[in-house]
Write a structure and sequence with these properties.
The complex is a heterodimer of chains A (497) and B (316). The longest helix of chain A has 16 residues. The radius of gyration of chain A is 24 Å and the shape is globular. Chain A is α/β, with parallel strands linked by helices and 497 residues long. Chain A is built from 18 helices and 20 strands. Chain A has a six-stranded mixed beta sheet with strand order 6-7-8-3-9-10, with helices on both faces. Chain A has a six-stranded mixed beta sheet with strand order 16-17-18-13-19-20, with helices on both faces. Chain B is mainly α. Chain B has one domain: ABC transporter involved in vitamin B12 uptake, BtuC (Orthogonal Bundle). Chain B contains 14 helices and two strands. Chain B has a two-stranded antiparallel ribbon. The chains are: A alpha/beta (497), B mainly alpha (316). Chains A and B meet through helix 2 of A and helix 9 and helix 10 of B.
Chain lengths: 497, 316
């Protein structure tokens, strides 16, 4: 006999002006099951989850809780059914402590009317934190925690709400290897206690390692619901992108690199960097690998001039840089940061505004802003990079992650950049968009630009880069190229022998 | 834990907030340059004179933590003070006058809150507008003249003492403790931190952002009403320009105290120290016979110096 699912969505549709975000999507959520939700950016995964948790109201469709039809009109209603979501952008308050964050909106009342029982909150928080084996003082202010720890707090928050259905949106996107292992252990523990987990991921290895069931979305529609044992990674990718692509993008052969574009000697920085010597030539993609925290981002920022380097020499196109970001940009350098939302984009502004932002000096030498010229420049970039937006006037915030990444790149192309530093360009981006980002990188170097790429995924470095430097403890511990550039060698250098 | 060694000492000094350093340095300078500064009578004087400012700076901290601002406080204080004086003169009842002042303050606070939270007008613009309204009403009601002749009983609120402690200081202490409890021990206070820190988190928790905002501005207006009572008692009259620029001192005290204008990073004790620092500065400059206009410039410099010290220590 079949038991009614814990929760069921039927025929959910949701439209935004100009976009059909969800079209007749159904989903069965079962207790003790990890349900993988996959699909490209813009496939409708996040929208579906926002409908489930009450942040959006569906235009059509119905919900069933234990077989009984129910309504989800707001977040409070969703919480009633034990639905909790851990979004990629955490919903934590930086200057409240862990316990206060866990109980935000559900503070325990104290004996004095109107006052909160703070001690009770700490005791209760300790209990929930112990459930996931997170050993931290619940009085720690959240802004002092790292990304992985903040995620733990989010999970604790969900558990304290008696969550029976836990939605995790790309939980491993910002985690290191060890942190991911810990997260998986927690997921297994939750599953065993009967919690239903909906897990959105772009990493196919996770989908197969964790999933009990896989649902594929594409263009707002449900394409398939399958069991991991009955499908392969290639089939899944084909379903996701709707066309057959080689999920393992490999680098086309490139002509021999040209002159040295970036030459860094003996860079030592305030954050502990020491003896950083590296170079990048025209027409090549050079990888910068190493564990999270090994100093890769610090190197990128020091080269760019975002953080002042104390000593060392940075030459760009043969000339010493002035060590400031303004100077670097003027000389044709671009840094595409890891956190594009806060560091690379003015989210509320339009796609067009963002694209012309860094190239204003070049585009309007007289200092007078000419909207028509800006629009033309933006349109040409949008076309060149195939950014999916109906008009340059659309706010960047409404675009999918992959397209936002393209806007950042477009901004620098428009500014006339010839040397690009990419910090985790594929973080939080799905398979199809990844291949496209790599094609873009390839196009850049094909036209004579030089690229330095930071990535946590060794496989990406191996497949995309011509050479790679490996970092450990704020130092470069090796350079790999040709046949030596293998995942095994990167891991060996990056960890310990 | 062992005792801190000499080598660790600079580290712990580095953790002292800028406002505390500023306060100590200022006090030391004035104690050395003006003989009367460190006398018990003058210290009591500084504290008493700081009370009105504290009543404004406390809710200003809360409002700034919501990433807002209330420029209307000084003008609302003034208008409430005038309404208080006129009511007392007309009815003969100081209690009625007091409640009239609170009502005026609350109404302005409510108006600020509704305009900001419901109509979504930026706090800077909203409170600049209500500043103008309150200031205009004050001049209109008085023709620009002081309202005099109020009974002695009101003056006693400022000059009186309980067990040797000046009454205003007691009132201010109660206000401080009340605001502390409100900010750190109530739901409202928690939501104030959340409002500035992560508005989305508050919405997802099912809390009305508007409700929290409105209450924050009502608190501001209400406290301006209380401050009006002290101001009227201090001047033994109501004057249509008495509170002009007090919002500047209040914002300065909050900023000096280390409350940030973003991310909901607030510190109430810092505001208290900031208020005292502003009070010490004004008092010391008075003793040195520095003109009031030059004092404003000094307070501006104080804000910059305190934030500079905090900024120095924020570096890794």
């Amino acid at each position: 006999m079949t038991v009614a699912p814990l929760f069921e969505l039927q025929g959910i549709s949701k439209e935004f002006p100009g976009i059909k975000a969800l079209d007749d999507v159904s989903l069965e959520i079962r207790a003790g099951e990890v349900h993988m939700l996959v699909g490209e950016n813009g496939a409708g995964k996040s929208t579906l989850m926002k409908v489930l948790c009450g942040a959006y109201r569906a235009d059509r469709g119905s919900f069933f809780h234990n077989g009984k039809q129910v309504a989800i009109s707001d977040p409070a209603a969703a919480r009633e059914f034990g639905i909790a979501v851990i979004f990629q952008d955490f919903t934590l308050v930086p200057y409240l402590d862990i316990a206060q964050n866990i109980f935000l909106g559900r503070e325990l009342s104290g004996r004095v009317p109107g006052l909160i029982d703070r001690r009770g909150i700490y005791t209760e928080a300790r209990r929930v934190l112990d459930m996931i084996g997170f050993d931290v003082n619940p009085r720690t202010l959240v802004h002092r925690l790292g990304v992985a720890q903040q995620q733990m707090v989010e999970i604790a928050k969900a558990l304290s709400q008696q969550a029976r259905i836990l939605v995790m949106d790309e939980p491993t996107a910002a985690l290191s290897e060890r942190e991911i292992e810990r997260l998986f252990a927690i997921v297994a523990r939750l599953k065993q206690s009967g919690v239903a987990i909906i897990y959105i991921s772009h990493r196919l290895s996770e989908v197969f390692a964790l999933g009990d069931r896989i649902t594929v979305l594409r263009d707002g529609r449900k394409i398939a619901s399958l069991l991991p044992g009955a499908t392969t990674a290639d089939q899944l990718v084909t379903l996701m992108v709707g066309r057959s692509v080689d999920s393992t993008y490999s680098r086309p052969s490139r002509p021999a690199p040209g002159e040295v574009v970036l030459d860094v000697r003996n860079l030592a920085g305030p954050s502990g960097l020491a003896g950083i010597t590296l170079n990048v030539r025209a027409g090549e993609i050079v990888g910068l690998s190493g564990l999270v925290g090994s100093g890769r981002t610090e190197v990128a920022r020091a080269i760019f001039g975002a953080d002042r380097a104390i000593t060392g020499e940075i030459r760009l196109f043969g000339e010493r840089t002035g060590g400031s970001a303004e100077d670097s940009v003027r000389r044709g350098m671009a840094l595409i940061p890891e956190n594009r939302k806060t560091q690379g984009l003015a989210l509320a502004r339009s796609v067009g505004d963002n694209i012309v932002l860094a190239g204003l000096r070049r585009l309007f030498p007289s200092g007078m802003f000419l909207p028509a010229r800006a629009m033309k420049a933006a349109r040409s970039i949008i076309e060149k990079l195939r950014i999916a937006t109906p008009t340059p006037r659309r706010p960047v915030a409404t675009l999918s992650g992959g397209n936002q990444q393209k806007v950042v790149l477009g901004k620098w192309l428009n500014a006339g950049a010839r040397f690009f530093i990419f910090d985790e360009p594929t973080r939080g981006i799905d398979v199809g968009a990844k291949a496209e980002i790599f094609r873009l990188l390839d196009g850049l170097v094909h036209n004579g630009a030089a690229v330095l790429m930071i990535s946590s995924e060794q496989i990406e470095i191996v497949r995309i880069c011509d050479r790679a430097y490996v970092m450990r403890d704020k130092r470069i511990v090796g350079e790999l190229s040709g046949n030596e550039l293998t995942e095994a060698n990167i891991v060996r250098l990056g960890t310990h022998q | 834990m062992s005792m801190p060694s000499l080598a660790q000492l600079p580290m712990s000094v580095a953790r002292v907030p800028g406002v505390a350093i500023v306060l100590v340095v200022l006090s030391a300078i004035f104690a050395l340059t003006s003989p009367g500064f460190a006398s018990p009578a003058n210290i009591a004087n500084i504290l008493t004179q700081s009370t009105i400012l504290l009543l404004l700076a406390l809710p200003m901290t809360v409002i700034i933590m919501t990433e807002g601002l209330d420029l209307s406080m000084g003008a609302v204080l003034t208008f409430a003070s005038i309404v208080l004086a006129i009511t007392v003169l007309a009815s003969g009842s100081p209690v009625l006058g007091f409640f009239a002042a609170l009502a005026v303050g609350s109404c302005f606070g409510l108006a600020n809150g509704l305009l900001i939270a419901v109509l979504d007008i930026p706090p800077f613009i909203t409170t600049l507008g209500t500043l103008g309204v309150a200031q205009g009403l004050s001049l209109l009601a008085t023709d620009g003249q002081s309202v005099v002749g109020i009974p002695r009983s009101i003056e006693n609120i400022y000059s009186g003492a309980l067990a040797g402690i000046p009454l205003p200081v007691i009132i201010a202490a109660i206000a401080y403790c009340g605001t502390h409890a409100l900010l750190y021990h109530t739901r409202f206070g928690t939501y104030v931190f959340a409002l500035g820190g992560n508005r989305e988190a508050l919405k997802m928790a099912g809390i009305s952002v508007r409700g929290v905002l409105i209450r924050a501005y009502v608190l501001g207006g209400l406290m301006a009403g209380f401050a009006a009572l002290l101001m009227t008692a201090r001047l033994n009259s109501a004057h249509p320009t008495a509170g002009i620029g007090m919002e500047f001192d209040a914002i300065a005290a909050v900023a000096v105290g280390g409350t940030s204008f973003e991310r909901g990073n607030g510190w109430l004790l810092g505001t208290l120290l900031g208020v005292v620092a502003v009070g010490v500065l004004r008092n010391g400059l008075n003793l040195l016979a520095v003109r009031s206009s030059a004092q404003v410039a000094c307070i501006g410099a104080l804000v910059i110096i305190a934030l500079f010290i905090d900024g120095l220590r924020a570096e890794p």
